[in-house]
Design a protein that fits this description.
Blueprint: E1 4-12, E2 18-21, H1 23-33, E3 39-44, E4 50-55, H2 61-72, H3 89-97, E5 101-107, E6 110-111, E7 118-123, E8 130-138
Length: 139
Amino acid sequence: MATFRTHTLDITTGTSETVADLTADCEAYLREVAQGGDGLLNVFVPHATAGIAILETGAGSDTDLLAALRDLLPADDRWRHRHGSPGHGRDHVLPAIVPPHATLPVLGGRLALGTWQSVCLVDTNRDNPNRQVRLSFLG
């Protein structure tokens, strides 16, 4: 019989754009709940201005992603959504490009990621440094 378990991470992203690697948190959670089994891990950020990405970190890809998002979604006054910091409207468009969720295979109790893949929270919103990320395991 399949089981469903969920856990919430509290993440502080600070006051600058960030890509926060959540892979170790996901793996720790799976050690508790997957019990060596197979299933699916859903990672979800319940915020209108953040997303979840699977990408390489530490070799510049995380910085490249933020640079690409700045090019694609400039923090200027073009946005109709105008509360918060100047250009904050772009933060509300981010989840259409970097979705607020990812569902990942779990095999033998471990994430089945590629060699250089990491699970990351992408947050361009400098106005909200406190984020929650929900981890849900179905196995």
